[in-house]
Structure formats: structure tokens, C-alpha cells
Design goal:
The complex is a heterodimer of chains A (498) and B (100).
Chain A (H helix, E strand, L loop, with lengths): L12 H10 L4 H19 L2 E4 L1 H16 L11 E5 L26 H8 L3 E6 L38 H8 L5 E6 L5 H7 L2 E4 L19 E6 L2 H11 L29 E5 L9 H16 L3 E5 L7 H16 L19 H12 L2 H14 L4 H25 L2 E5 L15 H5 L6 H5 L4 E8 L5 E8 L4 H15 L10
Parallel strand pairs in A: 2-3, 7-8, 7-9
Antiparallel strand pairs in A: 1-3, 4-6, 5-6, 5-10, 9-11, 10-11
Helix pairs in contact in A: 2-3, 5-6, 9-11, 9-12
Chain B lengths: L4 H10 L6 H18 L39 H5 L5 E2 L2 E2 L7
Antiparallel strand pairs in B: 1-2
The chains are: A alpha/beta (498), B mainly alpha (100).
GO molecular function (chain B): asparaginyl-tRNA synthase (glutamine-hydrolyzing) activity; ATP binding; glutaminyl-tRNA synthase (glutamine-hydrolyzing) activity; transferase activity
Pfam families (chain B): GatC
Keywords (chain B): ATP-binding, Ligase, Nucleotide-binding, Protein biosynthesis, Transferase
Chain lengths: 498, 100
């Protein structure tokens, strides 16, 4: 189907903002164009749980009015975005893709979303995700799977957009939104970005406030930006980040001018290649794109150095103790009393109401993680599982610290394969968990990391490269991402079928 | 370490999750698969290693001891707090009878 290459919905954050500021088009025109794409794709892609076209228009009108009045416009002015349905939005249902929170309408706005609206962005809707952000394929949402806009040539098999930020990645790839928020606990921004040929960055833990973000694993959860290029991600992240006294783990640091300092010139930089990321059974194409990335880094002037992260192979196991442990604690709040679902069987007392409510409200993967978490925290097992995992986490973090004595950033594949078909891994939780093998270690160490599209595999599906940086060095990550992006020249987009 | 049906039933009870017999039967092998896989952490020599508590060094702050310093998280928000309760009554959260 023809897809006008000059249409507004092919533009990114910077182009829309600058076009609105220059009067090439109005913010309302932009919002209308994306609203139309959202509505037209909903039944096929299911990227949104709730669309809010009126919110997008309202924000756009405010930007157009401000421009007419000659007022200064914000860094996201006139840019409509998708909001992952893990961020509390005042007056708009916020579900974490769970039946447990169906109908929950927050009376407050999350800090990250508030900052984006203050920067001039508007909301197209609340994006679908894996339930409580637990999943790597967007198959655990109570509101149905998100379908990737990408397909294998000659096949209409439904592919995963990745997870948990799969509504975000699908919407951006399908031109339903120029950018979207994501959250990343073990790879939930980077893996979906890689699967859909989009860009996503998770900043250093503590850069973005978690206030108003539905909690999964609090020591790992971190919000970030997703878009179609590195510059757009930088602009949006700059608008989202910043100190928030309402989040006790928020970093009390100024937000650097990442966008203004972007440079793809890597001369004098050292790029590390962790040898432990060459895992058994990795497809040759993933290895080839990694080699290509190494060549691009050299071309950009970097010196490439092999490094060792010896505890890499234990990261996933540590993650699947720590994250469920924190989840079992965080999700204890869903009790049918204060908000969300209540299931009160006839004659039931308080305890039976809790158990019935939680059985009815949580999906299978959420229950699985709550049970694992409860088990590893239970008396007699706490030290063997949880304390051991937290010690291994220290070792993983130390591995990175040692590597960063030698190099400025690390370059790896984002995921061990291209997107798989829906249903392919759903019966085997363990094989699903292995999708996060390259993204989880940086999460455990709280490091900034991003995924940049690098090319297509033989089936025409996107593959991503991951860049991991030192704590607080989002700039180094973005710059290396920019260098890769410039050389990859990734312009592929999904053939429109929806 | 592996779990049996009785252990999973106990964990489910601790987690306040009602599970049917059939669900229990299905969960036992799933959880054992995951637990067997995480056993590999036991191989790691962690002698002298402190468990991680914060990935990025940070200190916990105290807010100023001022009433309603932040109106969003301060007082006088009863109706907003109760707005999403499944059974709010008379300005309180309603629950089934607790004391016989």
C-alpha cells in the first residue's frame, strides 16, 4: 500500500517541533494526523488501551495559541506522544494492562508525564504493555496482545513488538506516534526498540522519577524515551528527567543538555566488546550485525577493545530472583480495599477477599512472579536465594566498573534474535526469559543503555545494537548511538498492512 | 531445592492468592523449572561480597517537617484518596466484617 513519504506522521520529534515553531503546519494538524493513524490501526495492532484524541487536540491548541501570542514554546511543543499505561495520568484510566486496575482513574499525574506535558507534548493515548510490565513479548496484557507492524515477507504470521513496552514500540514503528514513553526493568525499552527498528534509551537509575509509575521492581524500574532516532530520544529524555523530591531514589542532579552536546565523533573514545556476550546458539546474523557495529565504531574514530564481564552468565538468574522478590512486595498493595478490583465471594471475610481479588485480578505471569518472589523471600530461603542474588548483583556491577576503567562505552547486540511470532515462547517461561540475556546486566547495575536499529535480518526483520555507558554518562551512550545510527542508515519501515 | 504441591499451596496462601487444585498442579513443575535454573547462582563465589542495596550511590533525604509542604502528598485529600476505592463508605475504606 502506498505510504506518502512526506506525510506529517513520518516526521519525528525535532521535525514536528521545529515545523510547528516555524509555522509549516499547526500543532492541531499534527495531532489530527496522528489521531487518525491511531484510530485506523487500533483493531489490527491493539497498541493502545485507551486513545485520548481530545487530549492531543487540547494540548495542540494550547501550543498553537502560545505560538500565536508570541510566547516561548517548550522543547516538545506540538509533539503528540504515546504514554505507556504504567504512568498515572490524572483523569485518564491507568491499568498497567491488568484487570486488577481496570477502571482505575488516577487523581494525580506522574512526574514524568507532567514534565512532558509542561514541555508542550500532548497525549495520544495510553499504550498497551505486558501486564505490570512483566514480559518480553506483550502477550501478558489483560487487554490483548499488541501486534507488531512488522511481518516476514510473504507471511501474515503475527510477530511480537517486544515487551514490556510493546505498545510503545509498535506505535512508533507504525507511525501512530513519533515518540512514546517506556519503562525498563530488565530490557523493556531496549528489546522492543530492537524488535521494531526504533530507538530507545533507559537512563541511569534515578534520572527519571518513579513517582506515579506503577511499581514492578523498584530497584530496577526506570523510565526512558522511545522514538525513531537518537536525537528525538535525547530531546524527550531531557524533558522527562530531573530531580523529584517525591521519589526517594531520584538523583538530585541537574539534567545535562544532552541534545545540545550530541556528537557522533568518537575519536579518542574507547568502545568495549564484552566477550561473554558471545553466547552459544546466537544466530549468525546477530553476530554479523555486531561485527558491523564494531566496524562502524572504528569508522567513527573509536578504538575498539575486547573486555571481560565474567559474571554475565549469572545476570538473568539473579534478575529472576530480585525482580520477582520486589514484585511480590510491591504488588501486595492490590488487596481490593483502596483501589482497583474487589472480588468478595458470598460470606467471605477479609483474608478470603484478598485472595479472591488477587486471583481474579492478576494474570498468570504476574502470579508466577509473585509466587517465585514470595518463595525466595520466605523464611529459610531468603539467604540462599535473595541475599545470594544481591551479592551476585554486586559482582555484576563491579564487572562493569572494571570494564569502564578501560573503555567509555560497551557495544553489544540488544537481543539474541529478531522478533519472534506470538505464541512461540508463551508456554515456556524460561525460554521467554532468555530474551533479556543482553539487557538485564546493565539493568542490574543501574547503567544507562540504549538500543539503536542496525539493520535487517534475512527475513527482513530489524536487529538492534545496544550501547551501555558509565553511570550518569547518557551523553556517551547517545553519542555512540548517533555514530552507529549515522552509519547504519536504517530507513526501513514496516510495509503497511493494517 | 524443589517445591511440592503443599509448598506451593503454602506460598500461595502467604501471597494471598487463591489457587485451584488444577492451578497448583500446573504451577509445581513451572516453579521447579525456574528454581532449578536459578540454582546456578550457588556456583558463584561470593566470599566477602556485600549484597547490593543501591545501584547508584544516594542518600535518603528527609523532607522538611512542614504540614502540606506538597499539597499532592499532604493532607486534606480524603475524597481524592477514596475516589478509586471499590467500597468507600462514610469517608472510610469499606471492608468485610473483620471481628466476629
Amino acid at each position: 500500500m502506498p505510504n506518502s513519504s512526506n506525510s506529517i506522521t513520518d516526521l519525528g520529534v525535532a521535525a514536528i517541533r521545529d515545523g510547528v515553531a516555524a509555522g509549516q503546519f499547526s500543532a492541531v494538524e499534527v495531532a489530527e494526523a496522528f489521531n487518525a493513524n491511531v484510530a485506523a490501526a487500533q483493531s489490527a495492532l491493539n497498541a493502545f488501551i485507551v486513545a485520548t484524541p481530545e487530549k492531543a487536540i487540547e494540548a495542540a491548541k494550547a501550543v498553537d495559541a502560545a505560538r500565536s501570542a508570541g510566547q516561548a514554546l517548550g522543547p516538545m511543543a506540538g509533539v503528540p506522544i504515546g504514554m505507556k499505561d504504567l504512568f498515572a495520568t490524572e483523569g485518564v484510566q491507568t491499568t498497567a494492562a491488568s484487570h486488577m486496575l481496570e477502571g482505575f482513574v488516577p487523581r494525580y499525574e506522574s512526574t514524568v508525564s507532567r514534565k512532558l506535558w509542561e514541555a508542550g507534548a500532548g497525549m495520544l493515548g495510553k499504550l498497551n504493555l505486558d501486564q505490570f510490565a512483566m514480559g518480553s513479548s506483550n502477550e501478558s496484557s489483560y487487554f490483548g496482545n499488541v501486534i507488531s507492524p512488522w511481518q516476514r515477507p510473504g507471511s501474515n504470521a503475527q510477530l511480537t513488538p517486544g515487551g514490556s513496552s510493546g505498545g510503545s514500540s509498535a506505535a512508533i514503528a507504525a507511525r501512530l506516534a513519533p515518540a512514546a514513553t517506556g519503562t525498563d526493568t530488565g530490557g523493556s525499552i531496549r528489546q522492543p526498540a530492537a524488535y521494531t527498528g526504533t530507538v530507545g534509551i533507559k537512563p541511569t537509575y534515578g534520572r527519571c522519577s518513579r513517582w506515579g509509575v506503577v511499581a514492578y521492581a523498584s530497584s530496577l524500574d526506570q523510565a526512558g524515551s522511545m522514538a525513531r532516532d537518537v536525537t528525538d530520544c535525547a530531546i524527550m529524555l531531557e524533558a522527562m528527567a530531573g530531580f523529584d523530591p517525591k521519589d526517594s531514589t531520584s538523583l538530585d542532579l541537574a539534567v545535562p543538555a544532552w541534545t545540545g552536546s550530541l556528537s557522533g565523533d568518537l575519536r579518542g573514545k574507547r568502545v568495549g566488546i564484552p566477550r561473554e556476550y558471545r553466547v552459544d546458539g546466537m544466530p549468525a546474523e546477530v553476530d554479523a550485525i555486531w561485527e558491523q557495529g564494531i566496524a562502524w565504531a572504528k569508522d567513527a574514530g573509536a578504538e575498539v577493545v575486547e573486555v571481560s564481564l565474567p559474571h554475565t552468565r549469572y545476570a538473568l538468574a539473579a534478575y529472576y530472583i530480585i525482580a520477582p522478590a520486589e514484585a511480590s512486595s510491591n504488588l501486595a498493595r492490590y488487596d481490593g480495599v483502596r483501589y482497583g478490583l474487589r472480588d468478595l465471594p458470598d460470606g467471605a471475610g477479609l483474608q478470603n477477599m484478598y485472595a479472591a481479588t488477587r486471583a481474579a485480578g492478576f494474570g498468570d505471569e504476574v502470579k508466577r512472579r509473585i509466587l517465585i518472589g514470595t518463595y525466595v523471600l520466605s523464611a529459610g530461603f531468603y539467604d540462599a536465594y535473595y541475599t545470594q542474588a544481591q551479592k551476585v548483583r554486586t559482582l555484576i556491577s563491579q564487572d562493569f566498573a572494571k570494564a569502564f576503567e578501560q573503555v567509555d562505552v560497551l557495544l553489544t547486540p540488544t537481543a539474541p534474535s529478531a522478533a519472534f511470532a506470538l505464541g512461540e515462547n508463551v508456554d515456556d517461561p524460561l525460554s521467554m526469559y532468555l530474551n533479556d540475556v543482553f539487557t538485564v546486566p546493565a539493568s542490574l547495575a543501574g547503567l544507562p543503555a540504549m538500543s539503536v536499529p542496525a539493520g535487517l535480518d534475512a527475513q527482513g526483520l530489524p536487529l538492534g545494537l545496544q550501547i551501555i555507558g558509565r553511570p550518569l554518562d547518557e551523553q556517551g551512550v547517545l553519542n555512540a548511538g548517533l555514530a552507529i545510527e549515522a552509519r547504519a542508515g536504517f530507513t526501513a519501515k514496516p510495509e503497511k498492512w493494517w | 531445592m524443589s517445591v511440592d504441591t503443599a509448598t506451593v499451596a503454602k506460598i500461595a496462601s502467604l501471597a494471598r492468592l487463591k489457587v485451584s487444585e488444577a492451578e497448583l498442579e500446573a504451577m509445581v513443575p513451572e516453579l521447579n523449572g525456574i528454581l532449578a535454573w536459578v540454582e546456578q547462582l550457588g556456583e558463584v563465589d561470593v566470599t566477602g561480597v556485600e549484597p547490593m542495596t543501591a545501584v547508584i550511590p544516594n542518600t535518603l533525604r528527609l523532607r522538611e517537617d512542614v504540614i502540606n509542604a506538597d499539597p499532592l502528598t499532604g493532607g486534606d485529600r480524603r475524597d481524592a484518596v477514596l475516589a478509586n476505592a471499590p467500597a468507600a463508605q462514610h469517608g472510610f475504606f469499606g471492608v468485610p466484617k473483620v471481628i466476629e
